[in-house]
Amino acid sequence: MLYAILCYHDEDTVGSWTKEQDAAVMKKLAVVQDKLTKQGRLGPVARLLPTTAATTLRKDDPPLVLDGPFAETKEQLLGFYLVDCKNLDEALDVARDLGAANPGGAYEIRPVGQFVPGSVQP
């Protein structure tokens, strides 16, 4: 089963890291990613740009396009992993490994229902 592991963190904190601090975190995360890749379990991974670059579509009548999200939260969605896991316990183990590599924040683990296959046929 595919699980989305959604990465939340305080955007201001992450944005204040020096290039060296950010690179050190990314290097630690790469160890976890490489392990999952070698096991054939890692799907797409994305690091989202800051919420200041976001656009929101409100489903009003008519729809309204706004700059940025307007959720009052202390942590923002900063990225995600798609990982093939046997069950929730295995997905939690992956999230724990990611958490050990990345200080602070939180991970939301959510099963993914595939409606359209994600592979491209040559």
From TrEMBL:
Please state which protein family the record places this protein in: Belongs to the YciI family.
Entry-linked PANTHER family: BLL7171 PROTEIN, BLL7171 PROTEIN-RELATED
Highest taxon in the source lineage: Bacteria
YCII-related domain: residues covered: 1-115
* InterPro entries named among the record's database cross-references: Dimeric_a/b-barrel, YCII
The protein depicted here goes by the name YCII-related domain-containing protein
